[in-house]
Amino acid sequence: MKKIFALMMTAVLALSVLTGCGSKEEAGSVTTDGSTSMEKVIGALGESFQNETGISFTYNPTGSGSGIKAVQEGRCDIGLSSRDLKAEEKETGLGATVLAYDGIAIIVNPENPVSDLSLETIAKIYTGEIVNWSDVGGNDSEIVLIGREAGSGTRDGFESITDTEDICQYRQELTSTGDVITTVSQNPAAIGYASVASVKDSVKALTVDGVAATEETIKDGSYVVQRPFVLVTKTDGELSDAAFKFFTYITSADANEIISAAGVVPAN
Q: What pLDDT digit, counting tens, does each position of 8-61 carry?
């Protein structure tokens, strides 16, 4: 009798495991990869989507260039880029959908007395034409230029807007938005750039030509240092059911409240 009971329990347990796995497969999963600047907004959208649908969501913060490559190589469902796709990337069969617009904040240490710079002055600082804070109303100290690594969407956006492509004189080129913020927060002579949505109280965001980066100024274009947050997919292939549901969910008007709460401006 005990032997029969044990066999029955084993069968029940096996059936429950199989049923559980079947439910998980049915729910599916969606993988995203790319821009570290999009971490806050994509994380909030992913959490909400997962809670509502039961579909598993993952995000790999590797940078825009790596996210684009991950889509090309089929290593993720949706790539995340904080810059527009280049012509040669589109020619490989990739498509871009703008999710939101984000300001790029120009950040300094809170101890820095400078509070506003013109776009032209920012360009002169990053190209080495202006090298001391005293030349722009600050302390008598050498300006330490902090930026992002090659391939970063934030760097691409910043250099495109300031017309400084390939001529910035960086002291450090860091691999994430968080690293830039931390480095600037620890050096009173540093200047950097980072997604507005990611800026913390540990740094000070400057106004640019007298305009602060807010949802309103990004939306109306008066804050000029801004770029798109882009969803990257293959144009010659279909998304999985789970990925398609996620894509539809985050690009619908229903997601706008979540996007705005993350500090960026919805595209829809």
A: 444 433 433 333 333 334 579 999 999 999 999 999 999 999 999 999 999 999
* Residue type (1 letter), 122: I
Q: List, in order, residues 6 or more apart from 137 with CB less than 8 Å away.
A: 113, 114
Cβ atoms 77, 56 nearer than 8 A: no
Tell me yes or no: is domain 102-226 CATH 3.40.50.410. Answer: no
* DSSP-derived secondary structure for 202-214: TSEEPEETTB---
- The listed CATH number (3.40.190.10, 3.10.290.10, 3.50.50.60, 1.10.230.10) that belongs to domain 33-100+227-266: 3.40.190.10
- Residue 244 tokens read as 């398609």
What tokens appear for 106 in the block? 């120009």
Domain boundaries, the chain: 33-100+227-266, 102-226
Distances 149 to 13, 82, 154 between C-alpha atoms, Å:
51, 13, 9
